[in-house]
Specification:
Shape: elongated
Structural class: alpha+beta
Order of helices and strands: EEEEEHHEEHHHEEHEEHH
Strand content: 15-25%
Helix content: 10-25%
Amino acid sequence: MDHIRVSKVEQMRLVRSGNNTEYMGTLHLTTHHMIFSAGDLELWIPYPMIHSAVLVRPPRRDSDDNIQAVYTEEQALEGSIRIRCHHFLFVTLRCTDIRRLYDVFATVKHLACVGSLEQLYAFDYRPDTADDAKAVEYDAHAEFRRMGVGVAGGVGQHWRVSEINREFQLCATYPPVVAAPARISDTTLTYAARYRSKARLPVLSYLHPNGVSMTRSSQPMVGLKQARSVQDEKLVEAIVATSEPTGMVPRFRNERNNIIIDARPTTNAV
């Protein structure tokens, strides 16, 4: 709170990138957020999301040290704070009170640059009630059901839930419950995992309502001898087929595009 020179500024003007509309409202500066509200518009900007903030000073009119005497309201509007965020949001703030504008910039400058992780909102937040403090327990089975995995007649009818990684015996970095194609047995999954680095075999990450899936895995252990795995190939083929109504791979390759994204550096992939 020591760095907050001003916590509330009335009649602040804001312009967002891609929208020439200038909003006039109230700017609130809290310990972790900058909040601008004007009618139906309420814009929250966490300080860590700010990439840069530039103060544009209005041209000085005389040599008087009194800020309010130097700038009239019209002249003060020539100054601004231009904020660029990491998620490509650009905002410009203007105010008829130039002293308030400087205080806002000083506050944002101090709060946007934290000295340690403990100063971030995630570590500072304290719930008000006991209900808010309840831990949210993740249920993998419920999450897969939400996506439709294993639901007869649905987009996930060709998928199933497997507990092959119970006690993390198959892969130490995968959860105990994974989703795999329904026509692939746990035995096949076990052999396919041996062909993948750290046993990270292809498993379901997300199932879209249109039936298209996103799966993840580690790199195959091809090696210098160009080793192959029949089980791994059958698993990948079954994953491709899950997006088809029949659960079978299309006869013609141009019927559907399937993309494999290799995130490895070129040196590791070659």
